[in-house]
Amino acid sequence: MMTLPYAEPYKIKMTEAIRTSTREEREAWIREARYNLFKLRSDQVTIDLLTDSGTGSMSDRQWAAMMTGDESYAGASSYFRLKTTVAELFGMPWFLPTHQGRAAENVIFSALLKEGDIVPGNSHFDTTKGHIEFRRCHAVDCTIDAAADTQLELPFKGEMDLAKLEKVLAENPREKIPCVVLTVTNNTAGGQPVSMRNIRETAELCRRYGVPLLMDSARFAENAYFIKTREEGYASKTIKEIVREMYDWADIMTISAKKDGVVNMGGFVAMRSEELYKKAMSFSIMFEGYVTYGGMSGRDMDALAVGLDENTEFGQLDTRIRQVRLLGDLLDQYGVPYQRPAGGHAIFVDAKKVLPNLPKEQFIAQTLAVELYLEAGIRGVEIGSILADRDPETHENRYPALELLRLAIPRRVYTDNHIRVIAAACRNIFERRAEITTGYRITFEAPILRHFTVELDKIR
Q1: Which neighbouring-strand residues pair with 269?
Q2: Which CATH number is correct for 23-52+314-458, 3.50.50.60, 3.30.450.20, 3.90.1150.10, 3.30.1490.10?
Q3: Which residue is catalytic, options 126, 300, 302, 389?
Q4: pTM metric for this prediction
Q5: Bridge partners of 34?
Q6: Which has the least CB within 10 A, 105, 125, 415, 440?
């Protein structure tokens, strides 16, 4: 008897037209955008892999929940429904909604950080590092060294290096370290997960030194999926059970709910300490809005409450991660190098290995990103030297060990045929990589988070 093939646990109810462009059009558009893919218009993009943040397709239950949204300024029932979901799922009793993840960081770091502080973590993502350095504090990377070897196969490649972390904790006064940030999954390292063992051991180390553990939680559900499928002792546990255990070790959490909450806009900060909540509350009111809506409408809070419930079920996560793995499997067939194993939300192509002769000063991953757009109208994002920004003290460009082109797959948006187009385009570039001999130089950059608005010129 034939084993039935895999099928997605949903059916498609609405479609959105995609415009296919010519190479000549794309050459003109990317030149007008000053070779910054963020500056492209969406209708100039065929397959958009810039981010999986806020770009997913919501479910029928989420759309229905939006109709029950309570838009009261204070005390909205939508707020209390989301508050209950957060408390049940994460075990965090104190909660402030925000309009997205960087807003949650702004609120909590305003309450926690002071100039000169040190914030260790496992590869702080761009906005996290931006908020830390904007406050003249120092983000110290304590990721395991293995994360820098893209071809090394490890089940939990995004983990905190406990020896590095303890060195930071031991060598600095307690009052200089307001928190430790643990990012799950580790986006900068390639969407790589963190094991429950590493979460527990990081938390125990933090408790020994009296430092709160803050979990950056944008892709918490994907991290729980990898714990279930890769870590001994968790195969029989539900995703919700694993999530609750993960957060039993955390003191604070921030989240961009636009990822694993599968909403177009939203986030929150939650914590165990009522004292910290009261301190953060003032910044929430100043920056976001009153405590029972923050930066979110009632309808968005209701959609998020449903999204958090739905996306902590195995079937939804399995479908999503299978599609990311399909892209990785196809790139394996074509010999295109990427951060292995395939991550939870994206494939991170190793730009240094694709373009080994391009000088780092010419922004290797950005060069590859532009080539992919020119090849097939596919928009990815550079996770490399442009995103790494300049050192806040020396003002020299930082050149990270990894130069990656992130291809982030939106949830429930593209079919497997789109994935095959992406893989074929990557193959075409890889086969003509010897022809790509020059990259780009910066002509304009903002003093912080420059990658969003940077302008470049092609080196002739």
Answers
A1: 96, 254
A2: 3.90.1150.10
A3: 126
A4: 0.95
A5: none
A6: 415
